[in-house]
UniProtKB/TrEMBL annotation:
Entry keyword Kinase: yes
Keyword rRNA-binding tagged: no
Pfam family, one: Pkinase
EC number: 2.7.11.1
Catalytic activity: L-threonyl-[protein] + ATP = O-phospho-L-threonyl-[protein] + ADP + H(+); L-seryl-[protein] + ATP = O-phospho-L-seryl-[protein] + ADP + H(+)
GO molecular function, one term: protein serine/threonine kinase activity
Name assigned to this protein: non-specific serine/threonine protein kinase
PROSITE patterns: PROTEIN_KINASE_DOM, UBA
Provenance organism: Alexandrium catenella
Length: 158
């Protein structure tokens, strides 16, 4: 599990920084860089992101950050828990009822859609569900933004 965290650290570095942490034309030099955690994070990343990457790319598996520590890390916690929570208390998938109703209106029977989603099927039903869910989330964000701007306008004119 700790090696998976290290691998995720490499991926996180690449996603945040835009390039891999360890690069070298010479294979022996590349291995040396990996074993010594010899990399430079760019200055433009936040202190919390830098700290998370450093902890994930720690070469000693015994001192490397673990999953519970990752989940409590400030960089991870900056996004609300509910925005990336897919499962309920007992491990069941949380499904959006209004999105299921939209699927039903599109001709996808609700029971079949729920079954496909719970089984993590990759088909036209689940694809449509996740596209509708993403549209709902984007619409909610835009609505919140518009509400904020209209409140600001009212405050400025009052």
């Amino acid at each position: 599990q700790r090696c998976d965290i290290w691998s995720c650290g490499v991926i996180l570095f690449a996603l945040v920084c835009g390039y891999l942490p360890f690069e070298d034309q010479n294979t022996a030099a590349l291995y040396r860089k990996i074993l010594n955690a010899d990399y430079q994070a760019p200055k433009f990343i936040s202190d919390h992101a830098r700290d998370m990457i450093v902890r994930m790319l720690t070469t000693d598996p015994e001192t490397r950050i673990a999953i519970p520590q990752i989940r409590s890390h400030p960089w991870y916690r900056q996004v609300t828990e509910s925005s990336h929570r897919w499962e309920g208390e007992r491990g069941e998938r949380i499904l959006e009822e209004d999105v299921l109703e939209q699927l039903d209106r599109f001709g996808f029977p609700r029971d079949y859609a729920v079954k496909c989603l719970q089984m993590c099927k990759h088909n036209h039903v689940t694809t449509t569900y996740y596209l509708l869910l993403e549209k709902k989330r984007r619409t909610n964000v835009k609505t919140l933004g518009m509400s904020y701007h209209s409140e600001m306008s009212e405050d400025l004119t009052a």
